[in-house]
Specification:
By secondary structure, the chain is α/β, with parallel strands linked by helices. It is built from 2 helices and 4 strands; from the N terminus they run ββββαα. A hairpin with a 4-residue loop joins β1 and β2. The chain starts with 16 loop residues before the first strand and ends with a helix.
């Protein structure tokens, strides 16, 4: 899992200014065959507001967070052998249908005695 704030360090060179972080938290449950883990996913947006010249503002950090009213459940499931076989048949059937269709188009374009002249006339008409 990737955490956006992990290893983050901010160094303020101007000495005056403010950092604001907006965190959005989503409760998440990971469920595998053997264990269930409850955690939170979050996204982070940061904003820096530099001090205006002559303004005596102290540097500060603000963290604003929002909890999502929805939760996410990620469940690990293995597909059965029947589902796997149906997917394999779908791939094989789709490949077969596409190659038959392509073969028919190529045959129709090349089998007629005047096919080459018709095609070349159409190409010439498009060029002009």
């Amino acid at each position: 899992m990737v955490n956006p704030l992990e290893g983050l360090a901010q160094i303020e060179a101007e000495r005056n200014g403010s950092w604001t972080y907006f965190l959005k938290l989503v409760p998440t449950t990971y469920q595998s065959r053997w264990k269930t883990k409850e955690t939170n996913q979050y996204s982070m947006t940061e904003f820096f507001n530099g001090a205006i010249q002559g303004n005596s503002q102290f540097p500060h950090l603000t963290i604003s967070y929002e909890m999502s009213p929805y939760s996410v459940k990620i469940k690990e499931e293995n597909m059965g052998i029947g589902h796997f076989l149906v997917r394999i048949c779908a791939v094989v059937g789709g490949t077969y249908a596409f190659t038959r269709m392509l073969d028919r188009w190529v045959y129709q374009l090349t089998s007629h005695p005047h096919a080459h002249s018709k095609i070349s006339r159409k190409i010439q008409a498009l060029r002009t």
